[in-house]
Structures
1.
Amino acid sequence: MAADGLTLVEAVAEAMHDEMSEDESVVVLGEDVGRSGGVFRATEGLYDAFGPDRVIDTPLTETGIAGAAIGLAASGLRPVAEIQFSGFTYAALEQLYTRAARMHARSRGQFPCRMVLRAPFGGGVRAPDLHGESMEAIFVHHPGFKVVVPSTPRDAKGLLIAAIRDPDPVVFLEPKKVYRSFREAVPEGPYELPIGEAAVRREGEDVSVFTWGAMTRPTLAAADELEGEVDVEVVDLRTLSPMDRGAIVDSFRKTGRAVVVHEAPRTGGLAGEITALIQEEALYYQEAPIARVTGWDTVYPLYDLEDFQLPNATRVREAIRDVVSV
Amino acid sequence: MSRFPEEFDDCEGIVAPDGSYDEEAVAALELDDEEFCELYESMVQARALEERGLALQRRGEFHFWMECRGLEAAHVGPAAALADRDWMNTEWRQYGAQIQRGRPLVDILLFWLRGYETWESDEIDEMDAYERRLPHIVAVGTQVPQTVGLLWGRALQGHDEVGLVGVGDGGASKGDVHAGMNFAGVFDVPVVFLVLNNQWAISTPVDGQTAAETYASRAPGYGFDGVLVDGNDVLATYRETRRAVERARAGEPTLVEALTYRRGAHSSSDDDTRYRSEEDVERWRERDPIDRYERFLVDRDLWDEGYAESVRERAERRAREAAEEALAIRGEGSPEELFDELFANPPAYVDEQREELLALVEEHGEGAFRW
Ligand SMILES: Cc1ncc(C[n+]2csc(CCOP(=O)(O)OP(=O)(O)O)c2C)c(N)n1
């Protein structure tokens, strides 16, 4: 580990490296994951360390990658499949929905579907069309998957190792906007962080902000800007399915106010789910309407227009001000 | 409208529709009398199971049945070509294939009654031949890349196992099938692709799926061989699949196209008179795989009325008993089963929802939930 820590994408590579060393049934497959190390270098070093039978460059077909990963899992291996950009996961959805998520149920436990599908997700890197999608809600809505979205290098490594060890199919969405934007000390060797537990990134008394992935950074920035004016609690969910409902409800009972921040489009997004949960579990603690700061319901825009699509610290700050002013 | 194997010069066959056959080819199969009879009995059993399934559907005891009449040779022959350690992922309609592999009839029926399947052995290494399969998938074609992944993984782990995966002429239009075949060619995966060309995908005829003469002709595009076989000739489907299995063991996939015809409706909910003529069906009835094979067995002194009668009776009895057993088991389902095995490592919310449902059932009784 470098003295100044790892970036998130380096932590992802290290997680696979350490777990492949630990368990020889782990194989990595996807487009350009081998010699090139992946377009984001998320599989850097694996090919040299483990060779072409364990780090497999596949033909260009997301259906094939997902389908083969499902079969590899049934064969007793533990595949970690990379979809190059989350928007191309659309092509793999039939395989994932019709088999990965229901293999365990439909075989009554005979064939767990022990696979991880990794994809760089979200916008903010000025990429072409279909490179900026945030698709977490469609996976969370389908029973049978676990959905993980790390926001820091240390979490990324521990959660990815936990995902590889989990017997169920895990969709592991990596916020590419923060792939390289900061470094953090990351423990050496394999370690697990529990799937299903949120992290309180900042404690506060006045309002709870629930978020995940790349949105954690602008949310923390907004909380810093409001220092002295509003005491903001920031909860990074880290796992979207299963969601840490206890952490959400506890935080809300303390503050009585909430803002949910996600970059995915608003309608049908997870902010609605979180709001419903709060209504069910903590209505009588509620002091103000819950605000949603989300991507707009648009087809994801390119280049300069991305700035208007993605929630930023200003939007989060203003939403917090609105919610505490009631 | 329909095509016949005789129209293709290169269509592999052994027993002609009139029952005449190629002696040398039969000798080369190296099957003993018992094995010849087993193929027959599997086909008869498949037909008897179908008759039972349809009867129960008409009586309202089964919600749904997929028909297989006329397809028995295309199902049974390929299954017989596999070794016990091999894998077979069929489509749901391939009853004969599963019967040939030794799958209990009750197990086949339960798939339709409750949607999930169960296995006897927990470990792959302890599985019987018939258990070496993945659960059926209703989304057609999706099983193809999965089977490729499965056998690829088994090969990477040092196992000498081959996989057979079936897909229909309709399913073969799907991108998954292309992806799977392409993967197999690139990675030398030991898989045999069986395209079951029964000429109909519900009401869409095969020329509405492809403009190609044959599906077998796709294979060279993937870098391996394709073969067209008379799908109503059980010895031919057996032989060509066995050859393909041998090639697969050497790391070379093959596409076997079995050209046949679905004489029944697509399913118990389909009215095939809306889209095709009785003459077409009749012309294929003359090519019935069981009748044709009976003529062959007669010539080999392996068949007489008494034998046929006893095979048929046994098949009908087994189908009846299996159906009774399946219906009894179906009735045992309880509401909490909804949540069983949803995950290998279940999150807490699954248990919470189960408790929520059970509390409601406890309060109002199961009857309040029946609709
Ligand atoms: C992906 C998908 N689309 C549609 C269906 C509905 N469907 C069930 S069977 C069938 C026709 C399949 O035809 P074919 O693949 O030729 O196989 P056959 O039923 O003739 O054996 C269709 C359209 C399905 N099961 N899966």
Note: The longest strand of chain A covers residues 258-265.
2.
Amino acid sequence: MSKEDRLLKWVFVLPALIVIAGLMAYPILYAFGTSFTTYLFGKPASPAGLLNWQYAMEDPLFLHSVGITLGYAVIAIPIELALGVGLALVFRDLESYVPPKWLGVARAVIILPFVIMPTVTGIIWRLILMPQAGLADYLFSLVHLQPVDWLGNGIGAMASVILMDIWMWVPFVFVIVFAGLEALSDEPFEAAKVDGATQWQTFWHVTLPLLKPALLVAVSLRTIDALRIFDQVYAMTQGGPGDATTFVSIQLSKTAFSNLDFGVASAELFLVYVIMLLLVGGYYFVGKVGYRA
Amino acid sequence: MRSAVGFGGRKWHGFVLALALMWTLVPIYWLVTTALKPNTEILSFPPTLWPKEWTLASFSFVLHHYAGYFANSVTVAFGSTLLSLIVGVMAAYGLSRFRFPRGLVTVIWLVVLSIRMMMPIVFIIPLYQIFQSIGLYNTRTGLILAYTLVNLPFVIWMMTSFFREIPKALDEAAMVDGASRWRVFFSVALPLAAPGIASVAILAMVMTWNDLVFGLFLSSDMQAMTLPVGIVGFITQYQTMWSEMAAAGSLAIVPVLVFTLFIQKYIVRGMTAGAVK
């Protein structure tokens, strides 16, 4: 490394450090200060000590939002994983007798749900689930079931969110797992065939263990994104009916921008921040996932 | 041709593939056909699977009333992508070519990771207050800065891996020939990384274009409101204009469809940035 480079290297990273300091570090410190201040109608009123933090830990609406967010993640993610893995395996088998060009087209179609605007995804499902005139109730009527007001009741709305989530994210799991399958050599599968393993045995003892790294990536990314859910739900239900689909992000935005209680919102965002950092840190140290210089 | 991993027979494969394609395409088909029907037809039972009465009225309504939102979205997506690229590509080159103290590198990556993984609303709450006090609230500049916070880590991450694929020996050879470090950066590294830069730029633009949440809370009127905010506004403003809502949605996803065709290869890499090397 030349003398010139010793100074120059800092010039390369300095702009990024300035942006990160100004747009991330400063807002986070600002929020930390806010969390110790009482806010009335969006204006700082007086120092509050630990009151906001105490309130945040006991805030029933906040705890409810954390609960339903975790609940939705626990239900939706395993379904997405199972379907995504199944679809990837079918694709991998199709490769052995279908021209790659056609599979490329099919793959391009299948990834659409997670590249289009999530707000529009929310609108799409709103249209499908419209009472009576929507596609969902029409399909129900074909098999002589009563129309359902999907988004009009809590359980129906939550089920709708999970259905939309499956539409959006199965392709994502599929793409990650399929990339993992592509990287595997043919040998283990051929060996299993020669040894007379059944399809089920091959899947259980050969395919799944080999896919572990890809599955770890898929699980961690799905967990993180599930906890962040906002856009498509806001467009579909606005967090309703009542607070049935008020996930953490939506609840935080209500506390800050509807109740104008920035003190409590800031304390709550730190609790969320800590939960997230623990998760990310956890994945980071599990190895495989995360960057190692 | 690859050998099969053995997951069911051909009939089963065909069935699964057909189901997956239907499941993906029917909702999108529903959106587009809804946009082409008049509102009276949308509310009738049973719903028409193929529009009885075709109309482009909704599309012309959206093009008239929504031009401002489109312009804001384009400005913000473009501005933020440009800013993140300038700052991020430089940082990525630095990180890939020079040695920094280990602690600093770890801190940078943890920061990059945590921005990447954090819910936007966590940054929006303090940014809203800061922007209010310094006059950046409800401006396109404010939104460009806010999205740069999200795009920058992504650019640094992706570009570092692209630069690592370019051998350092190329830099060194040029420097032996008397080129300065800047000269090497601009005339050796950047041209070689151009395809990577282009794909990262497209991905950053698509992510910004698609995002609702910053625009929703950091803007308040047509001065800065982006397209997704306008679409959500439909729901509250015009309760029953389903057809227009669908038309706005259809138009909003067109640019993304066109762009993603170009960068098929990089989508997975981009979506998993932060989790895999």
Note: Chain B touches chain A through 106 residues (CB under 8 Å).
3.
Amino acid sequence: MSSADLLLPLLIAVPILAATLPIALGLWFDRTGWYVAAATTGGLFVGAVALANEVYTGGNVIHRLGGYPREYGIELVADEFSTLIVLLVTAVAAGVLAYTRRGGPRGNTFYTAYLLLVSGLLGISMTGDVFNLFVFLEITSIATYALVASGDGPEAAVAALKYLILGTVAASMYLIGVAFVFMATGTLNMVELAAAIPEANATLIRAGIGFMIVGFAVKVAQWPLHTWQPSAYHRAPDGVTPLIAALVSTASAYAFGRVIVTVFGVDYLTAVPNLAPIVLTIGCVSVLAGTVLAVIQTDVKRMLAYSSVSQFGLVIAAYGVVVAGESETALVGAVVHLVGHGLLKAGLFLGAALVATSYGARTVDEYAGLAKRRPFVAGSMAVLLFALVGVPPGVGFVGKWYIALGAVESQLWPVAAVIFLSTMLTLAYAARLLEKMYFTPSAPADATHPGTAATDGGTTDADAAAAIRGAESADPVSVGMIAVVVVAAVAAVALGFAGGTVADLLEPFLTEVFN
Amino acid sequence: MIELLTTHYIYVLTFALLGLGIYMVIASENLVKKLIGVNLFQTAIFLFFVAMAYIDVDGASAPIVPHEGTPGEVMVASPLPQVIVLTAIVVGIALTAVGLALIIRIYAEYGTLREDTLREVRADE
């Protein structure tokens, strides 16, 4: 094997080291943060693509930190599942960076927290050790608390503190689960655990599973433990919400899936009494509660946040189907939906941030007539909303289709019914926004709110393009910001067509899990 | 029942402390006390981890204490949980620091640390 395994520690260590630079350089220069973050994220994206190339052609890439064998050391593993999340994290991080260039938040401390967040997320994706997973979960969480609190006004601090207390209790619950599992098996490595768990003391293992499920249910924001999420997403700065909405809960949901399929193993969990019904119930109730709560919201960011509760409910329900019916199809659905939803939410929140920057519009009513004023943004948001509802060929459809198919194959008709019902309700809130954007004329009184004026100098390609158009150079929205939303919409449709390819790419992982 | 309590006292102590911590988080109106509750909750887990290292090997001594007797015969508790706890303590400190910073911000903005007062102040705005 080549030295491709060095990519794994580099992907995690480089952003941590780079995170010190914005503050250190900030002592002498202003506004170096964006350049450091852009260079790092660009490098990470290239690294992730190289890693994906390696994984999808040559199989799993494993790195042993410090050269210690599996029994003593920590392993970093990139397999077919985790590589998809690595690609999603680096791609969304790069996209958000293109937005913050002009849209803010600015300041070197923001970029430090941003890089720490990216590092934690990549760590969650690639670690092969359950305790190391806890550490990376906490790195991610601490960076997220700081980012949420950097929002304007004191409400952001209140939302961040609420998130901190709930998030810490959740992570601690996961840690208790790790303690029980460790007590039963004496190892922390995921591969070793998978081998040791079937022979271990069942009571301890089941206690561990219980605590881990509660911990992840909070982290993934499942009803009724979701209360931190809408206020955190709502109060976070506009440039931060896409990042945390698309990635933080996604990474936690990925970790949950990883723990289910790799650590405990589907065969083992299927035999645990009442486990599958519990996971299925958590997921299905969240799907319904999330969509119903989203329908009654008037604030766009809050509406999208509740929509996340329901979409992650779908992923958790898919895990339930995987456990209940040993369904490969549902696992493919969960993975596709996880990645697809990350992309959709990033695009939608970026679009909402863009509209808020241009017009100060934050409620559904204020979106009236947006299609006339911002045809590209409105069009992209429409595509993303349709994909979220599950209209083919959007990526949301592919994920839902596989999950529903898996549920039907496993004779779990109620799950399929819940998915259908939630699609109708999703259409209800998506249609409300679409109707406002396309069919309601804008109120004449609310002329453009001047957003925060761009004070940032420098010429990237996007800026140069804006400068050519001259007259619009005072526009708070750069071409790059619009381009990111359009790219997200195009990618959502393209991924929808590529759903089968993703399933093919996952094939080696699935045979490993279900044999 | 009594026998269960006396033989599994580590569980009893841990979960009593966990319960105390979570009770403080839920019931206390003071934000600082809430954070202390979170810390208590975490400390219970740390103690659980440390106690766990001795569960399989009765009468083992701590791994860092020099032992008498011939090598190979001395029972030593697993050092791994203690290393884990060190890392977890560091994580806990970072969390407490961030939490206290947020509380200072809230106090500066609203002039109160009590959650009920905070709710009233925010409702007025």
Note: The first strand of chain A starts at residue 61 and ends at 64.
